[in-house]
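Recap from last week: sequence in, structure out.
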Amino acid sequence: MPLSNALTAFRLPRGFSYDALHDALKEHNYIIYAGQGHLGAEVFRIATMGELSLAALRDFLAMLEEVLGSRPLGATAATL
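Predicted structure tokens:
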């Protein structure tokens, strides 16, 4: 099985907070990481380090899609 050593950053969708997205994914045993410095409120990071199967990555992506589509996490009145 191939090994990966990547950390990839993604822009948070408009109206979503990192903390809410992190907590929702953690409820399903997935951990994401905040952006650093001035990007902390704009991006989240996903580590794909170690031995990961394609099935594990697909499961994570399906859960991410479900979480992002389920409710406006961290939405403010200005973004709704």
